[in-house]
From TrEMBL:
Keywords: Cytoplasm, Immunity, Innate immunity
Region (Disordered): 141-172
Species whose genome carries this gene: Semnornis frantzii
Domain (FHA) ranges: 35-107
Subcellular location(s) of the protein: Cytoplasm
Cleaved signal peptide residues: none
SUPFAM superfamilies the record matches: SMAD/FHA domain
Composition-biased stretches (Low complexity): 148-159
GO biological process: innate immune response; positive regulation of canonical NF-kappaB signal transduction
Entry's family note: Belongs to the TIFA family.
Protein name from the UniProt record: TRAF-interacting protein with FHA domain-containing protein A
Any one annotated GO CC term: cytoplasm
Length: 172
């Protein structure tokens, strides 16, 4: 079973999740791709938001070669929006194996995905949940410090009088 917990900061106002079934588990045939996006003719999981692509991303269920282990592969299907799976950024048509537990982000959307082991061969199940608080905050992940309108952050002033430290631009 793939448990997915959805969050968007405007979910109460815009009701973008109203077409998702949060009540019960749903079965998806193993040979079908689970597609998430705005187009209800193509996607089984619809997000009612004009900023979401027709097909935002897809999940493909598969079994590893010479193994009974089942996995999911996630692919970004949006030409406009990058998909972030934990800390991996996926451009259009990029795909990776979905970790056993991860956070998927695009735009203001946050989705906690958790894979539960099972015996299914012909199908897998999805169980959708709705989060009331941001998933990133709930998991105590660091968020970047906001920069005030003056353009100076408080950490800029606290380093005065200290020698500068050179760091690589990729370090945080």
């Amino acid at each position: 079973c793939l448990h997915m917990t959805f969050y968007h900061p405007c979910q109460d106002d815009k009701m973008m999740f109203r077409c998702l079934n949060f009540q019960k588990r749903e079965q998806v045939r193993a040979d079908e791709m689970a597609k998430f996006g705005r187009d209800s003719n193509i996607c089984h999981y619809n997000l009612l938001d004009t900023r979401v692509s027709r097909i935002q991303f897809s999940l493909q269920f598969y079994r590893k070669l010479n193994s009974s282990e089942s996995c999911f592969e996630i692919k970004n299907m949006s030409k406009k929006t990058k998909l972030i799976v934990d800390k991996t950024e996926l451009g259009y048509l990029n795909k990776i194996d979905l970790p056993w537990k991860c956070i998927i982000c695009f735009g203001d959307y946050q989705i906690l995905a958790e894979i539960q082991e099972g015996e299914g061969v012909d199908y897998f199940e999805t169980h959708l949940h709705l989060a009331q608080v941001p998933i990133l905050q709930e998991r105590h992940l660091p968020s970047p410090e906001p920069v005030p309108e003056s353009g100076f952050s408080s950490s800029s002033f606290s380093s005065q009088g200290k020698n500068p430290i050179e760091i690589d631009e990729n370090e945080s």
